[in-house]
Amino acid sequence: MIIHYQLLANPLSVAPMMERTDRHFRYLMRQITRRTLLYTEMITTAAIIHGDRHKLLDFSTEEKPLALQLGGDNPQELALCASIAADWGYDEVNLNVGCPSDRVQNGNFGACLMAQPEKVAHCVAAMQKAVNIPVTVKHRIGIDDRDRYEDLANFVRIVSEAGCCRFSVHARKAWLKGLSPKENRTIPPLRYEDVYRLKQEFPHLFIEINGGITTLEQVHQQLQWVDGVMIGRAAYDNPYLFATVDRDIYGEETIPPTRHQVAEKMLPYIEDIVSQGIKLHAISRHLLQLFSGQPGTKAWKRYISENVHHQAAGAEVIEAALAQVPLWG
Predict the structure, then answer these.
(1) For this UniProt entry, which segments traverse the membrane (predicted)?
(2) Is 75 annotated as a binding residue?
């Protein structure tokens, strides 16, 4: 069944993921879906203010629509970075209020900010004042013992009054102590009902749900209750999952590319990037799951893994690996 969702804001996105959603993975995703909203990895305000901005922020225009996710808790620094993002050409700036890692907590940002909704509101207001692009927030349903629905609703109410209209809600709470970031993605139970209730009580806000969603059938089901769906690890583990979304979610009259066609469209990009002195592995590691679950996937992965580290490895490695996979894969 094909359902068309005509919404002002994007109904499907790929979650920001550290060491996953870099520019090379995003370029791969653009060969599969043109419309899905993509996010950068989280980048701290300190890194942008003091670091190599071209290395951190550069992207290909083909990657748009594209959002920059920021980590920080200082309104002035966040406003500056939002302004830089807008000038750089990003379509959205997103504030991370969901990451539970110790490093993030030590910087007083990420999930621990859920206990400080007024601070988040000040940050959002400062960013909103600095830019004309959307400022959004990604967060959890709660943290530690502060996980009642009332706490979640209070957080969203306060932050929305500062001007945020789009909330991407990971439907698990986070334990700030005792669980690793990986465990925090799986151990706390999913509470989709809290997110549905949030949409019911804040109908004027765009509420996006995240967590445990791995199929397009589940996406369609979720869109009956909320405005948008964000997919995380499933997008990385099986990027071809998105092959039909431009047609089935966005209503475009388009023929989904085959996996072979996706790989072939990556070849000129690989040649260009490798010619700049970047190692093939930086790109090829994102391609390993392209044939996930298909005949030939083991041979595909093995050939790339065995040949990617050769001194002059380039697009020819991917071409040769592709020859290992049946054309119907």
Answers:
(1) none
(2) no
Both tokens of 72, joined, read 């920080």
Q: What is the pLDDT of residues 176-225, one digit of tens each?
A: 988 888 898 888 999 999 999 999 999 999 999 999 999 999 999 999 99
d(CA 10, CA 164): 15
* Catalytic residue annotation: 99
What's the rounded mean pLDDT across residues 166-185? 92
pTM above 0.85, yes or no: yes
Q: Please write down the long-range contacts of 182-191, taking CB distance under 8 Å and 24 or more positions apart.
A: 184/100, 185/211, 185/232, 185/233, 191/141
Q: Is 127 annotated as a binding residue?
A: no
Place of tokens 């549905």: 196
Q: Is 163 annotated as a binding residue?
A: no
Structural domain of 290:
259-322
The answer to whether 274 and 315 are in contact (CB under 8 A) is yes
Q: How many structural domains does the chain have? A: 2
The residue count of the chain comes to 329
Beta bridge partners of 97: 139
Q: For helices 315-322 and 259-275, give the axis angle rounded to 10 degrees.
A: 160
Flag whether 6 is in a domain.
no
Provide the CATH number for the domain around residue 35.
3.20.20.70
The neighbour count for residue 125, using CB atoms within 10 Å, is 18
